[in-house]
Write a structure and sequence with these properties.
Blueprint lengths: L15 E6 L6 H15 L3 E7 L3 H5 L7 E4 L6 H13 L4 E4 L2 H13 L6 E6 L9 H10 L2 E4 L2 H11 L6 E3 L14 H8 L7 E5 L8 H10 L6 E5 L5 H10 L6 E5 L5 H6 L2 E4 L9 H8 L3 E4 L16 E2 L5 H13 L1 H18 L2 H21 L1
Parallel strand pairs: 1-2, 1-4, 2-3, 4-5, 5-6, 6-7, 8-9, 8-11, 9-10, 11-12, 12-13
Helix pairs in contact: 3-4, 8-12
Length: 381
């Protein structure tokens, strides 16, 4: 069970929160950080995001209305420790919420050499990559970090089982979705506004173009679907773009695949699709795009990677197929494309599930409680 969070926020002062992110990429993790930061600001807290020089999160922060500072924290170097130390001393932060391995190490060491500084370290893990169990990592997770957060219950269970983390110190808090932004809408209107074909079956995927998201299996599956009118819309960008475009050419699918590139607003695309596909095979928490699709009332085909099973229950809220299994993916996609009543039933069930548990306010409530509990526990020690 996820650790209970029992803190009364109503009478407590606003917090001063530092987020750190060493990655220069752009995807669900970075979007969650900025969404959470903006949400906390709206609640009266003061928030600053610290990102690596040249990173997308620093560039995008202005669009979320969140202050961001670029620091040399892209690699584990003494200069990064010194920069984090200066940044954390310059502002009376209560909490340092770290998000990737490098910035967690840099922040932990910076706080260690500045023992008189107030900030308490909270580490959020967004992916299901195994955590080493060496002496240094044990110190980082058990001593330097006040509390841990994962974006899925299976990630939490793995840290408890494989890394010996005290269950009372770790909470599973999936990404929260703004239901007002991802409400169901008119498919025909969405297609018209986006310039998408009006009468063909549309499969869609919204994900950074990384290998483990499984785009290549989706392209293979598209070529094997019986209805040759079916098209695929790929929303997002990333390091696999050139390889995927080459695969489209090799499979002679040029007229059936649309690459939209990175889009700041993906809700209109979700409303336009008949089916959402996310054939990930690794590294997932509870994927933000899959949650968004379910909020938008879209039937989904996905796998059991990472914490996906927490929302995707085969035959109830989604069609769940084997990882890296093109034949199963074809079968699942054809099943949904051929059965409108099944699509409607799965979409309705999925939306009811996520609306009750994965709203933005729920995430903000729970993260705020974690921060206050971390401060209370450290103060009492």
């Amino acid at each position: 069970m996820t650790g209970a969070i029992m803190v009364n926020e109503s009478s407590q002062r606003p917090l001063v929160i530092a987020h750190t992110e060493s990655s220069d990429g752009w995807g669900g993790q970075e979007i969650r950080i900025l969404t959470e930061a903006a949400g906390m600001q709206a609640r009266g807290h003061r928030v600053v995001v610290h990102g690596a020089h040249g990173s997308r999160i620093v560039a995008e922060a202005q669009h979320f209305g969140v202050p961001a500072i670029a620091l040399p924290i892209g690699r584990k170097r003494p200069a990064g420790v010194a920069a984090m130390h200066r940044a954390l001393r310059a502002t009376p932060f209560d909490i340092v919420n770290t998000h990737s391995s490098t910035d967690t190490w840099l922040s932990a060491v910076a706080l260690r050499i500045g023992r008189r500084m107030r900030p308490v370290l909270v580490r959020t893990r967004h992916v299901s990559v195994p955590v080493p169990n060496d002496a240094g990592t044990r110190w980082l997770y058990r001593k330097a970090t006040a509390r841990l957060v994962t974006t899925g219950e299976s990630l939490r269970a793995t840290l408890i089982r494989d890394n010996g983390i005290d269950p009372a110190r770790i909470d599973s808090i999936p990404t929260g979705i703004d239901a007002t932004l991802f409400a169901p809408g008119d498919s025909h209107a969405a297609r018209a506004s986006l310039g998408l074909p009006a009468e063909v079956p549309l499969i869609g995927i919204v994900a950074t173009l990384r290998s483990w998201k499984g785009h290549r299996y989706l392209l293979e599956a598209l070529g094997k679907i019986g209805d040759s009118r079916t098209m695929l819309v790929v929303v997002g960008d990333g390091p696999q773009r050139a390889a995927l475009e080459a695969q489209v050419e090799a499979l002679a699918l040029r007229n059936r695949v649309i690459f939209t590139g990175q889009r700041s607003e993906v809700a209109p695309f979700l409303r336009a699709f008949d089916v959402f596909a996310l054939p990930s095979y690794a590294n997932e928490g509870v994927p933000q795009a899959l949650l968004q699709a379910m909020f938008a009332g879209l039937a989904c085909v996905t796998t059991d990677a990472g914490a996906i099973p927490e929302i995707a229950r085969d035959g109830q809220t989604a069609v769940v197929v084997g990882k890296e299994d093109v034949a199963a993916l074809v079968k699942g996609l054809e099943l949904l494309l051929a059965d409108a009543s099944l699509r409607a039933r799965l979409a309705t069930n999925a939306r009811a599930l996520v609306m009750s548990r994965y709203g933005l306010s729920t995430m903000l409530d729970r993260m705020e409680s974690v921060f206050r509990l971390a401060l209370a526990e450290v103060g009492a020690s």
